[in-house]
Amino acid sequence: MLSLRFAELVERRLGVETCKMYRETNARGWARCMEEFELRTKRDFDISHNDLNYSYYIILPGASDNHDHGIQSNFITLKTSDILEIFRPIVQQIIDLVTEQYNALEKKGKQPSSVILCGGFGDNVYLYESLKTHFEDTEDFAVLQPSNAWTAIARGAIIHCIEGEGLVRTRIARRHYGVVMRAVYNEEKHGESVNKVHDPNDGRWYVDNRIDWYVAKGQALPYADPILRDFYFTSENEFFEESILMVVCDSDEPPTDFKPTASTRMFCTITPDIRSIPREHWWEDMNEDNNRYMKLNYQVGMKFTGGTILWDVRVDGEIYGTAAADYE
């Protein structure tokens, strides 16, 4: 929800139509912006300095400068007051939820002793201080924030079965999780797709920005063994950079094409270290025009561990890039 509220704030700054065009024409730039908010701002935001004009700079690559709305040199500037607008309703929801759970346990004759903050937002000082303030007059109840709270679940420190000592092994996906990819163009299936692109290396036509959904909403998340899907790169040589985009969708029916919206959005990205992949994993091929090109087969894996979803890029079982994002 924090990410959604942040996206709505950026949309207000840019304007609805301008933001829509930016997302459609610069999906990777938008992904970097959301990733910056998710991994840095969301965890680091703090109002202990008591300065509502304190500035946070979040990358917004390729966006046109608009000084009136705090957009300049590929960054959007947000004041503490702006971020409070995003955080306050969510923090209040968390406080209400903890209070509800506390009261429910008391009604059953049990005395809650503490609440432990974990996951990416569990590191946030503002959340921690808000909960401490709310429960400061509650006797024998502590708000705990372990170091590296965002990995606490993954370390097995938090989640236990209600009965017994075993760790929880199954989580149900609250949204769809997938990877943005390109599919070989099929006229009967795709028609005159606006995302139809030509690969000059292998000479084939593809449909870009398709989504390969790994896990459907309501499905059990993979816990031990990752889900692996096969893909490939083509290039004139082995030396290039490529980012792989993971997305989520809150709707019951997910789309087949990636267009950033309030319900379908970037989750995280991986930029594998392609230059470190040994030469023997590449193989040469020739297109219909007798031009040679390089091809690399790889897999993208996804698995759930504790409170984190892990993605990786692997070639012949060796991992060359990873990304981790909190399960929300």
TrEMBL record:
<dbReference type="InterPro" id="IPR043129">
    <property type="entry name" value="ATPase_NBD"/>
</dbReference>
<protein>
    <recommendedName>
        <fullName>Actin-like ATPase domain-containing protein</fullName>
    </recommendedName>
</protein>
